[in-house]
Design brief:
By secondary structure, this protein is α/β, with parallel strands linked by helices. It has a single domain, classed as 3-Layer(aba) Sandwich (Rossmann fold), CATH 3.40.50. Helices cover about 30% and strands about 20% of the residues. A 7-stranded mixed β-sheet has the order 3-2-1-4-5-7-6. The termini are far apart. The model has no long low-confidence stretch (mean pLDDT about 90). Bound molecules: S-adenosylmethionine.
């Protein structure tokens, strides 16, 4: 059986023409709003884990959300200098103890994970009681999403999952994480544990 590092190396080779695609720089619509919301909901000095933080030294939402102390994980198999605490890891197996973070965010990443249920339970495990979860993701039309679910397989060649708004709002119900705010234009969903 291949390790995830081997699978990542193979994926890196397959997608080498797309490297850097979809990373949140200052021109990315939504990144500024996400950073502002993180500053709004998390107290100054809180810790926030960015699950799937990408390849930038500091994504733009971290620059804007500068009141918090940032941690990031990403499985991407490339050496990059980062201006925050970083570990190479996946959402499905977060290398931190239980209930340590005041906030967790998925910034255009939740639809990339391989095992959604495991990723959700891992996020719940590392998030403190009373902590905030920020999900910024693309959201599709319910009928299209249902047709994809009936067919099975990956959503598309870059994303494992497709979500309707209804899916997003119900993803964390079983973890007792409640929706508290939605930014419909940017597709940012804020939850509280
Ligand atoms: C569209 S990029 C977003 C990167 C960053 N959040 C940003 O906005 O600049 C999606 C990221 O998800 C990461 N990713 C893919 N599968 C993952 C997983 N299972 N767990 C955590 N991150 C994952 C990819 O390596 C990639 O860096």
């Amino acid at each position: 059986m291949k390790t995830w590092e081997q699978l990542q190396s193979e994926a890196l080779e397959r997608h080498k023409d797309n490297i850097g695609l979809g990373m949140s720089d200052s021109k990315t619509k939504g990144a500024k709003v996400l950073g502002g919301l993180i500053n709004k909901w998390l107290k100054k000095g809180s810790t926030c884990l960015d699950v799937g933080c990408g390849l930038l030294p500091k994504p733009y939402y971290m620059e804007v959300g500068c009141n918090v102390v940032w941690y990031g994980i990403d499985p991407f198999n490339m050496e990059v200098k980062r201006d925050f605490f970083f570990k190479k890891a996946m959402a499905e197996d977060i290398p931190y103890p239980d209930e340590v973070f005041d906030g967790v965010c998925f910034a255009t990443t939740l639809n990339h994970v391989k095992y959604l249920d495991k990723s959700i339970s891992e996020v719940n495990r590392v998030l403190q009681k009373g902590g905030y979860l920020f999900v910024w993701t693309s959201v599709g039309d319910e009928k299209l999403i249902q047709a994809w679910k009936d067919k099975g397989g990956l959503w598309n060649y870059l994303h494992a999952w497709g979500f309707s708004e209804k899916d997003i709002l119900s993803l964390f119900i079983f973890e007792k994480i409640d929706i508290i705010d939605v930014r419909p234009n940017e597709k940012i969903y804020i939850f509280k544990k």
